[in-house]
Design a protein that fits this description.
Order of helices and strands: EEEEEEEEEE
Shape: flat
Helix content: under 10%
Number of domains: 2
Largest sheet: 3 strands, antiparallel
Strand order of the largest sheet: 2-1-3
Number of strands: 10
Strand content: 25-35%
Oligomer: single chain
Length: 188
């Protein structure tokens, strides 16, 4: 009788797990906030009849215009909603079943927020923009502040005063490469 000894086969070692490379956060570019063109999609909640809290009635389709628009960041005087549905529900009570839900395409222009235009006319005015890509304009002796993103330090502000350091009254300014520069008169 012959006995054969079998060697135990060793299981192959599995490779050591590879840690994923860290992901660096990036700032969104203007076209990434749009629908591929020049619009942002906004989710809007209305009462079942299409009316808002302040009585504005949204049409069932077609363009929407706000006759009482103003640049103050308060309820009323504007059309409100959640860009891309982000932060859904903040600032509103709603019913998923009973309310009317609209998706509105709008140009990303506002009195505050990314790509805003903020102006104040008259002598000794003051304005501050809040968001990236903003433009500001003030009157004689007016002062302003514009935020911008710096990869090393994060959010920063640049300030200007009409009549000082070459800043002109009634002229649009924006930040380019960490410097205040004149902006075109009208956005397209």
């Amino acid at each position: 009788m012959t006995t054969t000894l079998k060697k135990k086969s060793k299981k192959p070692k599995s490779p050591a797990p590879i840690a994923p490379a860290p992901v660096k956060p990036t700032m969104l570019k203007p076209h990434e906030w749009t629908d591929g063109g020049d619009k942002v999609l906004i989710l809007r909640r209305c009462n079942a009849d299409g009316s808002s809290k302040n009585g504005f009635v949204y049409p069932k389709s077609g363009p929407v215009e706000c006759p009482d628009w103003n640049s103050e960041a308060v309820c009323g005087g504007g059309l409100h909603g959640w860009p891309w549905g982000w932060c859904l529900g903040e600032g509103a009570d709603y019913s998923i079943i009973d309310d009317a839900w609209l998706v509105i395409a709008a140009k990303p222009e506002a009195s505050s927020g990314d790509w805003c235009e903020v102006s104040a006319s008259g002598k000794d005015t003051l304005t501050v923009a809040a968001g990236k890509g903003c433009r500001v304009k003030v009157g004689e002796r007016g002062a302003f502040a514009i935020p911008y993103w710096n990869e090393k330090y994060g959010w920063r502000f640049l300030c200007g005063k009409a009549g000082e350091d070459g800043i002109e009254a009634d002229t649009w300014y924006r930040v380019d490469d960490g410097k205040l520069v004149k902006a075109e008169e009208a956005r397209s």
